[in-house]
Amino acid sequence: MGMSISKLFAAFLGKKEMRILMVGLDAAGKTTILYKLKLGEIVTTIPTIGFNVETVEYKNISFTVWDVGGQDKIRPLWRHYFQNTQGIIFVVDSNDRERVSEAREELQRMLNEDELRDALLLVFANKQDLPVCYTKKKKKSAQALLTGLSGRLFFKKI
């Protein structure tokens, strides 16, 4: 009942709701990003086994962000979170050049799923403050992640 009233008020006041799926390889920083968005501060995290879900309010939009663990044994479970996803945040560890190909393969596999054909994509290059992150000379490695995504609406800042 309360949820119905909330949705009715949201319809009149123009509040939007969006379902966001945040994925990426293990140790990319997904959970840290989620709680920075939610709490405005960096918190200590442990590897995510399963998922975290939080609602983040920004202006007139309520984002429900699903942060799903990135260990290789958990990745096949990502598909269970695809339904009704309107946006994807794919988090990449800018400090881990050896795994760019693995990240690209996972991103491509996910984007081939029919349920995500209309979802917006944000590739988030995390850990830019670390000394070995992608520099301008090393951006080719990062750009390789985006190979094959033509025709897809996405946002990047590398």
From TrEMBL:
Family stated for the protein in its record: Belongs to the small GTPase superfamily. Arf family.
PROSITE patterns: ARF
Protein name: Arf GTPase arf1
Pfam families xref list: Arf (PF00025)
Binding site for GTP: G24, L25, D26, A27, A28, G29, K30, T31, G70, N126, K127, Q128, D129
Keyword Metal-binding set for record: yes
Keyword Metal-binding: yes
Stored NCBIfam families: small_GTP
SUPFAM superfamilies in alphabetical order: P-loop containing nucleoside triphosphate hydrolases
Binding positions for Mg(2+) per the UniProt entry: T31, T48
Gene3D superfamilies referenced in this protein's UniProt entry, alphabetically: P-loop containing nucleotide triphosphate hydrolases
A GO MF label: GTP binding
Species name: Orbilia blumenaviensis
SMART domains: ARF (SM00177), RAB (SM00175), SAR (SM00178)
Keyword annotations of the record: GTP-binding, Magnesium, Metal-binding, Nucleotide-binding
Family annotation (InterPro entries): P-loop_NTPase, Small_GTP-bd, Small_GTPase_ARF, Small_GTPase_ARF/SAR
